Amino acid sequence: MASAPKILILNGPNLNLLGLREPHIYGHTTLSDIEASCRQHAEALGLVVDFQQSNSESTLIGWIHEARTSQDGIIINPAAYTHTSVAIMDALKGVALPTVEIHLSNTHQREDFRKVSYVSQVAFGVICGFGAQGYIMALDAMAKKLINEQEA
Ligand code: DQA
């Protein structure tokens, strides 16, 4: 991997409403604020990011498939699809890119159905409960993983 590693950051349903949506759980930071801080941090780490959000499972799966030949890693907040989507898990397994799963909230502290994640089975790490900072932590983890692999 000679050039800057490319990371696809995917956001699932309702995350376009961040800032307005249940701020007592998800905070006041908007998705565009998160995108801006990811871009800034990625640049400092020497990563290139593609930041996307969709409310559609099919669109998310399409982006995962495209990533197979165009990206080096995936950071995903699958939102509600975390707990329901075998199809997103299979897509991530199929493209076999290093994946980090993130959640703004601590899903283990919430309703029982949020304690189940299909995506965790195919992620090398899971970050939850740190709010928007979780995206930055995921970029750090991804940079470390990709750079270590490059040096190995
Ligand atoms: C979430 C947690 C999910 O359970 C929920 O459906 C979301 C957001 C989070 O970032 O905390 O939409 O992924």
Structure description:
The protein has helices spanning 23-26, 31-45, 57-70, 86-95, 133-151, and strands spanning 6-11, 48-53, 73-77, 99-103, 125-128. It is of the alpha/beta class and 152 residues long. It has a single domain (6-151), classed as Dehydroquinase, class II (Rossmann fold, 3-Layer(aba) Sandwich), CATH 3.40.50. It has a 5-stranded parallel beta sheet, with helices on both faces. Strand 3, helix 4 and strand 4 (99-103) form a beta-alpha-beta unit. 1,3,4-trihydroxy-5-OXO-cyclohexanecarboxylic acid binds next to loops.
How many distinct helices? 5
Strand order within the widest beta sheet: 2-1-3-4-5
Average pLDDT over all residues: 95
How many domains? The number is 1
Helical residue percent band: 40-55%
Q: Uncertain regions: pLDDT < 50 for 5+ in a row?
A: none
How do the helices and strands follow one another from N- to C-terminus? EHHEHEHEEH
Radius of gyration: 14 Å
Using DSSP, what is the number of strands? 5
- The name CATH uses for the topology is Rossmann fold
Measured between the Cα atoms of the first and last residue, the distance is 12 Å
By oligomeric state, this entry counts as: single chain
Structural class: alpha/beta
The level 1 CATH classification is Alpha Beta
- Binned strand content: 15-25%
CATH superfamily, please? Dehydroquinase, class II
User: Bound compounds, please?
Assistant: 1,3,4-trihydroxy-5-OXO-cyclohexanecarboxylic acid
